[in-house]
Amino acid sequence: MDALEILSNLDQVFPYFQPIFSADEQRIIAYEVLGRYKSEEQIISLGSFFQDNEIPDEYKYEVDLLIVRKALEKAAKLEEDICIFLNRNADLLMYGSGEPFLQELLEFEKNGFSLRRIVLEISDHQYDGDLDQFDHLLQYYRTYGIKIAIASMNRESHYIDRIGQLKPDIIKINLEALKSTATGTNFNDVLYTLSLLARKIGAMLLFENIEMSYQLQFAWKNGGRYYQGYYLHPPSVEFLSRDLLKSRLKEKFHDFISYEKRKLEAVYVTTEYFQAQVQEVSAKNKKVSYVELFQALAKEMEGIAFRMYICDEDGFQKSANMFKGAEGWYLQMEYLNKNWSWRPYFLENIIKMRNERKGILSDLYCDIETGETIRTFSYPISGSDYLFIDISYQYLYEHEQLL
Ligand code: CA
User: Fold this and answer.
1) 292 φ, ψ to 5°?
2) Which of 13, 214, 315, 364 is 20 to 30 A distant from 87 in Cα terms?
3) pLDDT given for residue 182 in this prediction
């Protein structure tokens, strides 16, 4: 598309609006503004126009301003708690040191459009100017109540750094990456990091590019408060009824919740089952050594467990590992006296078991040595000693609700 054609037909430039839905109210809480151009044949996205490095910033600024003006004029008739997301890359935002754009927004505020309703969706991964200055500008904008969303980008490390530095109000996560299973695991890890970070800094997660039901489920399950994508609604020229998807989203949530509850129930039932098994075996083997106890447990938990060991409440290992290799069970003496108190949740779980005198089945995690996804059943065996039984992937696979 020819940039000149656009610049000489500015009256054909206009905004599209893509609705953003919230999980807590199941209705539209915002629109993202997207630039469109109506050529003779069709309506096209202005995305590539704004990304084109050949086009001078002042032209981009002019076209963008037009879209913003048209969008906010139209948005004036929306209910006052509906926010407007505006895409800003760093170059565009830094145009004229950010002053002309702010003046423009302040004009709208004078006419009654609160700047608290503006969310700037920023991306700065291609910016080669001074990032400190850019951050200062954003902080300045925020003093007017303007919110900041950070859009996901290809370079994850940069993304995570920037989230830490900017402490945005909203973190946008692009679900396109989820489509390819090759990057699936990696994406899960990044997402986990993001959700922890979001919680620490009090940011909300917004999942975008939701195109299928399972992606909505993924977003819901991973702490997504806001959702956007073709599966919910494509961008369009008009605003929509806020409750457009309320009943559909409620239905969806009902399915997600039932599914998740079934899984949690399965974990609960399995924990009770392991608890009963271990309790029985340990009651029968009270006076024996830990190795003999392992042998008795191995018999009872054949096909379930592949590793057992005992730690004291400070995490020091008081037994060797009993490990099931290709040839059967054997002892790994080198683990004696190792310490595991540094592992996530270790001490929390000890305190819980100590007080409740009950076993715990862990969440799914990747075993460092075997590389397999497993769970661990831990159990207060006697005095201040705790038994750990690693449950094989095979068993979890056969009981798929545990995966
Ligand atoms: Ca965007």
Assistant:
1) -70, -35
2) 214
3) 52
Ranges in the chain annotated CATH 3.20.20.450: 3-232
* 210 CA → ligand 1 middle, Å: 13
Determine the distance separating the centroid of ligand 1 and the alpha carbon of 172, expressed in angstroms.
Answer: 8
Cα 110 to Cα 67, 77, 103, 113, 210: the distances in Å are 19, 15, 11, 7, 36
CA distance 202 to 225: 12
Query: Cα of 88 to ligand 1 centre, how many Å?
Result: 9
Measured at the CA of 128, the angle between CA 122 and CA 132, to 5 degrees, comes to 65
CATH 3.30.450.20 residue ranges of the chain are 259-402
How confident is the model at residue 153, as a pLDDT? 60
- DSSP class of residue 78 equals S
CA of 72 to the centre of ligand 1 (A): 17
Q: How far apart are CA 115 and CA 144, in angstroms?
A: 7
- Predicted confidence (pLDDT) per residue in 323-380, tens digit: 999 999 999 999 999 999 999 899 999 999 999 999 999 999 889 888 899 999 999 9
Note the pLDDT tens digit of each residue in 16-74: 999 999 999 999 999 999 999 999 889 999 999 998 889 998 999 999 999 999 999 99
Cα of 315 vs centre of ligand 1, distance in Å, is: 47
CATH number among 3.40.50.1100, 3.40.50.800, 3.30.450.20, 3.30.360.10, domain 259-402: 3.30.450.20
Q: What is the mean pLDDT of residues 133-141?
A: 95
List, for residues 205-255, the tens digit of each pLDDT value: 999 999 999 999 999 998 999 999 999 999 999 999 999 999 999 999 999
CA of 87 to the centre of ligand 1 (A): 6
Ligand 1 center to 403 CA (angstroms): 34
* DSSP summary character for residue 316: B
CA atoms within 13 A on the CB side of 387: 26
Architecture in CATH for domain 3-232: Alpha-Beta Barrel (3.20)
Cα of 41 from ligand 1 centre, angstroms: 25
Collapse the DSSP code of 39 into the 3-class scheme (helix H, G, I; strand E, B; otherwise coil) and give the result: coil
In the prediction, which pLDDT does 15 show? 98
Q: Of 7, 119, 105, which Cα lies nearest the Cα of 63?
A: 7
